[in-house]
Recover the amino acids of this structure.
């Protein structure tokens, strides 16, 4: 179990060359695609017109999560990771509560905005300190 912990929770966060540029590119694609997707839902566009934007939002979001987890899995146990999990739960509710999708997407946007702009001391606060890298 010690070796697995070292792999998932390295003492120093892993970095790969170009990760900052990749993170900026993915975040830009994510913000653009989610903005168009949200606007499409707001104005009642047909599902077929929204699908490419949904695909880009999912692709870029998965990429952003993968970069965070590559660095260290402790991100998942920080407030930032829990905000992303909350957004995913709300997004998973959209098909079941289709008539409330705009409200759910507004909540996702609020969580994303607050999570991205809160101070680093809060963003990196450990909800489960036992998972903190040593």
């Amino acid at each position: 179990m010690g070796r697995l912990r070292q792999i998932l929770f390295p003492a120093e966060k892993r970095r790969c060359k170009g990760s900052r540029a990749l993170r900026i590119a993915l975040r830009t694609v994510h913000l653009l695609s989610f903005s168009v997707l949200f606007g499409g839902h707001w104005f009642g566009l047909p599902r077929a017109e929204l699908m490419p934007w949904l695909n880009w939002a999912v692709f870029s979001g998965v990429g952003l999560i993968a970069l965070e987890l590559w660095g260290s899995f402790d991100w998942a146990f920080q407030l930032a990771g829990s905000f992303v999990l909350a957004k995913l739960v709300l997004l998973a509710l959209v098909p079941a509560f289709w008539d409330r999708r705009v409200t759910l997407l507004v909540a996702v946007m609020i969580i994303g905005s607050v999570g991205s702009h809160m101070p680093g001391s809060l963003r990196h606060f450990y909800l489960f300190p036992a998972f903190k890298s040593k």
